[in-house]
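batch job 7 of whatever, protein = Spermidine/putrescine transport system permease protein PotB
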Amino acid sequence: MKSKGARSFYLIPYYIWIALFVIAPIALVVYYSFFDLQGNLTLENYQNFFSSVYLRLTLSSFWYAFLVTFFSILIAYPTAYWLTKTKHKQLWLLLIIIPSWINLLLKTYAFIGIFGLYGPANKFLAAIGIGEQQILFTDFSFIFVSVYIFIPFMILPIFNSLDKLNPALMDASRDLGASSWMTFRKVIFPLTINGVKSGVQAVFIPALSLFVITRLIAGNKVITLGTAIEQQFLVTQNWGMGSTIAVFLILFMIIIMMLTGQREKGGSANGKTK
């Protein structure tokens, strides 16, 4: 009983932190979502969210978040698999993670220079005979930069899942006559799916609320829920509508976390039973 009471005592700072910096901000967002520009209590913001404009915006946000997540997985999975086979895998992993320590705004401005009309990308295109192209302020530039920024967060959980995989399982699959593709589809991928789900959470959820990249790289041609929230709070000063969009964004995040949540199974990737 004494140790139980001690554990509860040590958890007090955690509960205070959750209450002040998680529950209280969400409660404030929900509270402000029920007020209009004049400060009147209303449900109009929620009615407006289900209009065609905001529904298209929501679908657009999910589409771009899906594309960023899809290309991140497409690049991250083979990269993580290759890393597990290298001699100095921890060093290579560190080199991949280091760019994520650099400030997001700094990386974004770096790509403005790279993709600009007089940047290295256009100089390369001119050198091979294609000529200068408008790379900035396009869907391509937005997705490319987003994938670059988020890909370390996809590689890391997939790498951890692959690194813990028992090699004997793959050897057994090959001994039973399975091809490399069959081994991947029936053994490797199912046993590392939790790493993929963690990566999806780390990429898809923040990709829904991007606004710095959309403004600087896409030139507001790509509008996401994050951009809409920024515009409602800072441009139109409609805190009620901005809070309403934020409420739905939080709900979408919770649903995604529930859908990609890890379920414990009877066995683990290393072949041991619990």
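notes: Residues 33-259 form a domain with the MetI-like fold fold (CATH 1.10.3720.10).
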